[in-house]
Amino acid sequence: MTELLGAGRHLRSWLRAGLVAAATAALGGCSTLGPSAAPSTFAQPPWVEPGPEDATDAPMTYACREGKRFVAAYALSGEHAVVQAGGRSYRLPHAPSGSGARFSAGGVELVTKGVEASLDGAAGAPYRGCVTG
After folding, report:
1. Model pTM greater than 0.70?
2. Of 9, 20, 36, 106, which one's alpha carbon is 20 to 30 angstroms from that of 94?
């Protein structure tokens, strides 16, 4: 009987090791690393549709005076914002700001402070008196 108990423990150890090996092999193909980024010397015009990029926060819809609206999604890194306005998309890098946040490229500028924002230079602009929430 003792031999059977010992054999059962030994079999369970082998089964456990086999399951761990199978799980490791199955998950080995899972990776969050993607292709390398384009060189930083390549500058896209702000009117080019943005391609896959780093993670962004949930898109925020801004309602503005005169019934205008635009949507902005901010990179979790804080390095840029992707804005959709007037049927076009713009990828705007972060720019220095005295107060609040500013994103600007190619004559398109998004300025935010708290829940308020303004957008200039985009299709359908200017967007004034905009709030989200």
Report:
1. no
2. 36
